Amino acid sequence: MQRSKSMRAWAILPLLLCACSPSTGDSAASAQTVAAPQAGARHPESGLRVIPLSVTFAGKRHVFTVEVAGSSAEQAKGLMFRTRMGADEGMLFPFDPPRQASFWMKNTVIPLDIIFIGPDRLVSNIAANATPYSLDPLPSSGTAAAVLEINGGRAAELGIVPGAKVAW
């Protein structure tokens, strides 16, 4: 009888420890505790593969969970018609081979920061707060190996500037 009580106490201990864990409601804390997507993860709305991506600048590192628009068709659609995106979500457009890139906001409902990434994986330029539905071209300042789209204003909020290192 005594042994079964102590075994039950040990079984409950992990639950109590979890209940006493500090809250991750603080955005600085949650930026550090973002769990990487599981291998083979897919975005529920687009069906695209989802991967972690980090941006590092001036000793700060921020992790995003991004959808990968790898094919021409996926890149042509991008974030068109999407009505919302999480604060730490985005879409990555990788180019192989790297090339001069230009984006527009046709059929794009939410404002975006369009971050152009050079072959050295450094941010080359940012088209900040791109206007929804605009057909104006937003070009890279040089050869782009990829483009990252995140919510408009988020790059400035996080201190992401040209020269920041991007890893995926």
Summarize the structure.
The protein is of the alpha+beta class and about 170 residues long.
**Assembly of the depicted chains:** single chain
Determine the strand fraction and express it as a percent band. 35-45%
Tell me the span between the first and last alpha carbons: 54 Å
Rounded average pLDDT = 84
Strand order of the biggest β-sheet: 5-4-6-3-2-1-7
Overall spatial form: globular
- Second CATH tier, the architecture: Sandwich
List the helices and strands and how they pair.
Blueprint (H helix, E strand, L loop, with lengths): L1 H18 L7 H6 L17 E8 L2 E9 L3 H6 L11 E15 L8 E6 L5 E8 L7 E14 L2 H5 L6 E3 L1
Parallel strand pairs: 2-3
Antiparallel strand pairs: 1-2, 1-7, 3-6, 4-5, 4-6
How would you explain this protein's 3D organization?
This protein is of the alpha+beta class and 168 residues long. It has one domain (25-167): Protein of unknown function DUF192 (Jelly Rolls). The chain is 21% helix and 38% strand. It contains four helices and seven strands. The protein has helices at residues 2-19, 27-32, 72-77, 154-158; strands at 50-57, 60-68, 89-103, 112-117, 123-130, 138-151, 165-167. The chain has a seven-stranded mixed β-sheet. The protein is globular, with a radius of gyration of 20 Å. 26% of the residues are buried.
